[in-house]
Amino acid sequence: MAKIDFTMQELLSSGAHFGHVREKYNPKMSSFVFGLREGVHLIDLEKTVIYLSKALDYIKDQKEKGKTILFVCTKQGLNSMVRELAIETGMPFVTYRWPGGMLTNFDTLKKQIKKFNDLEKLTESEEWEKMTKKAKSVVNKQIEKLNKSFEGVKKMTKVPDNIFIIDTVAEKTAIAEAKRIKIPIIAIVDTNSNPTEINYPIPANDDARRGIELILGEIKKALI
How far is C-alpha 62 from the chain's CA centre? Predict the structure, then answer.
């Protein structure tokens, strides 16, 4: 199993063990939870390390086989970290808003990506210099809008081989699409998650920035 470089104390200090309040608990997470404190379920961090190791072994194997992993996190405060990781490792990403049908209707997505790429090429062409200031403004606004949704997938020519998700509840549409076309899912699962939907679940607080940082650091090493 993959060796984890951070210590259990670092993971504990990061708040990775804090789940959600009892009212949001998903009983399917019971095997990853060791107790309840002041109405909040606590995640078993020993399980976090074990399952993270399993996920890292899988990620390394996929990397060696030249497979792609689409990183998905639209949560403010965490999405910038995920975007940075994906760029550094050369993987596609969605960190603004999940475009519905992205996996299940990829042909439509390809048309949007082509439009985005064509507009970017236009700004570098001779024709661009001949355009009016107003026309350029219209194109730039279109590029800005498309960039938010498609910046991280504009080089994708086919559906990804895998998908990595932070916050399975927020990204339920992405999970449903991945499951429908049988794309393996790696995900951080909090106490409100359904881990049975995930091929490689990593139990941890999906709101704890430092905890996510530690986990992403290990994933980055597995991909580089």
Answer: 16
**Residues sharing a CB contact under 8 Å with residue 75, sequence separation 6 or more, in sequence order:** 166, 167, 170, 206, 207
DSSP character for 160?
-
Helices within 71-187 (DSSP H only): 79-89, 106-122, 126-130, 133-150, 172-180
**Residues near 201 by Cβ (< 8 Å), separated by ≥ 6?**
32, 51, 187, 189, 193, 195
Cα(first)–Cα(last) distance of the chain, in Å?
Answer: 18
Answer for the pair 216, 81: CB distance below 8 angstroms, yes or no: yes
184: phi then psi, degrees, rounded to nearest 5: -60, 140
Q: What is the pLDDT of residues 153-187, one digit of tens each?
A: 988 889 999 999 999 999 999 999 999 999 999 99
Distances (CA, A) of 163 to 20, 37, 68, 96, 126: 24, 33, 8, 16, 39
| Residue ranges for the chain with pLDDT beneath 70 | none
pTM, full prediction? 0.92
